[in-house]
Amino acid sequence: MMIDHGEGPAGVRVRRALARSNLESQRIGPGTLRYGLSVVSVAIALGLALTSQYYQFRDVGVPVFALSIALTTWYAGTGPSVLAILLSTACFDYFFTEPLYSFSVSSSDLPYFFVFVAWGIIVGSFSAVRRRIEDSLRQARDHLRVELEQRKQREDEIRKLNQELANQAAELEASNKDLESFAYSVSHDLRAPLRHVVGYSELLQRQASSLLDEKSGRYLQTILEAAKRMGNLIDDLLAFSRIGRAETRKAAVNLEQLVREVVAELGQETSGRDIAWNIGTLPVCYGDRSMLKVVLMNLVSNAVKFTRMRAPAEIEIGSTDIKENEVEVFVRDNGAGFDMQYANKLFGVFQRLHRSEEFEGTGIGLATAQRIVHRHGGKIRAEGAVGQGATFYFSLPQAQYAAERSANTR
Amino acid sequence: MNGLGRILIVEDDPRDVELTLTALEEYNLANEVVVTRDGAEALDYLYCRGEYSSRSDDNPAVTLLDLKLPKVDGLEVLQQIRSDERLKMIPVVVLTSSHEEKDMIRSYQLGVNAYVVKPVDFHEFVNAVKELGVFWAVINQPPPGSIKKAS
Fold first, then answer.
1. pLDDT tens per residue across span A51-73
2. Domain A248-409 class in CATH
3. Could you tell me which of B34, B29, B22, B129 has the C-alpha nearest to residue A200?
């Protein structure tokens, strides 16, 4: 699902509608109405001014006309405002400046007249400025409203996504539970009949070995070996699935020390072999020690296994600094190697590139190694050529970087 | 060595029972073995109830307990044994197919004396059962009140 960061179609619609209403509120009605308002307001002002003059109130004309100009500017816009100023000026000139009842202005009243005109213009422009401010405020308000609307939509979307995420998490948990109970029943129920196959075959072998001819003896032996092999497969598969489910307990791990431990533990397999070990300096990385030991154990024991026909076998373990925040470790051997076109099959579960008579194994070691490395956020890859040995690389977050990162997120 | 302790086997699978008994027989440990086929029967035996009401109320020298059992499962039996003043001293060995860590942790939390995963390989299985039998029924001094036949 994609979050729409721009305006959705709904947002555009809201904005357009608001803009339209904005235009309408700027000018009440069509042009005639607005200019009518201008004329009417000046007429009312004139009426008021004449009435007050009749009742001997002095100097009412200027404020009343100014008021009519202001009202017109306020409600009808610039055009009617100009009209109101012109009309007011004309009325003022005609009715209130000497000589009265003529449009000519006596020189003595000229300043008075100009003051009126200036007064009208100032009031008009003040109103216009105020109107403009009000317009921009209104626009800002509309803009906010649109924004609010969009934010609400976005919040709704986020809420929906959250809900989906929660559902998915619940599903994931359920399927994890399924997997766990599956592994559990495999562990319990699948091993029992296997044990019986092996047990009774051996009992039969013991009981009837004198009665069986060589061929039958071999059949029985094959049954035994097949069952044992299946037992190993089940155990490996369970261990593999356990790695996916187990929690990782991460800390700084000294890889060099770990490699030496692994090599020491392989002593039984390496005794009597001519192996030239070359262990370079290895960095400290950040990960689950026991899991990383499994990775190294798988890679190093593979190297030991696939160099069986070499004397001396050369096994090199070292590191290449590829990035600041990552370490890359490699295990290189001069053994059987593999064809690069099958490189993608190396890490599959139960995938083997050699016949089981050549090299024993269930074909899960590299899959397990890959799973562990991936769980650490790293990568694993292999290079090799048939008969020319293989190199396995895996990368992990560097201890210092990982420590900093977890400190920052805390 | 001062006699043969009674072994209580709690195991629902007849083939596992046979294989276990075969292994014990090889080392003459099968005489004092009682087999119960589920958790409920095991508890009946331990409490001298039902078909075991007439037995003498001594405790077995060791109980070999499977975990996956009909009716009352192994962990429940273990919990019951450990919470009963009269039974709590009985040595209990879990003998199971389960490699699962959580079963092991739970068993130890409930106070099991040993946790043994049945090996697939028959030789290893026989060896494991033999060693368990020899250790718990012969070498180990069971708590007072256990059945022990003088040799």
1. 888 888 777 777 888 888 888 87
2. alpha beta
3. B22
